[in-house]
Amino acid sequence: MRWFFLLLVLLNAFYYVWRQQEAPIRPKEITAISQYKGARQDIRLLSESVGGQSEAAPKVPSGQCIYLGGEISESRARTVEQRLTSLDIQTQFGRWPNDSGGIFWLKVKPESRRLMDDGLVGGLKNDFPELKSKIMSCEGIATSG
What is the pLDDT of residues 67-120, one digit of tens each? Predict the structure, then answer.
């Protein structure tokens, strides 16, 4: 039994050497991680994107406001409003009448504009595909109602 075990060990060793000579080891090519990430190369904490002045914040001239909304239902607009409120972004809900009943908009108040950045707006547009954003005069379309 002992000889049979040694024979199997020698056969395994011979087979291993034979397989190594048959196919030489080639180094595996590894692509850079920057090619996988694409545009998402920077990592930011949530507190950095919401709390302070962000480099990606949209440039809004004074006297101009950011409006979010469009042809969405009132309940969807209220959901967006609640999400922004949870991020300490003050908004004003408004409705602009049209043929189909109304277009709902949220006006981001000037004191909260610094909290808005392109990443936040992009995330909202991913969750609400019909959502649009515009930079317009603060006396624009959003009225209380």
Answer: 888 878 888 888 888 888 888 888 888 887 766 666 788 888 877 777 887 788
C-beta neighbour count of 8 within 10 angstroms:
10
Residue 76 CA to residue 84 CA, distance in Å, equals 13
- Specify whether the CB–CB gap between 108 and 89 falls below 8 A: yes
Is 116 inside a domain boundary?
Answer: yes
Whose tokens are 């049979």? That residue is 4
The sign of the dihedral angle between the CA atoms of 139, 142, 144, 145 is positive
Model-level pTM? 0.52
Residue 119 belongs to some domain of the structure: yes
Q: Please report which residue ranges of the chain form alpha helices under DSSP H.
A: 2-22, 33-37, 46-51, 74-86, 118-127
Domain membership flag for residue 16: no
Q: What is the CATH number of the domain that holds 111?
A: 3.30.70.260
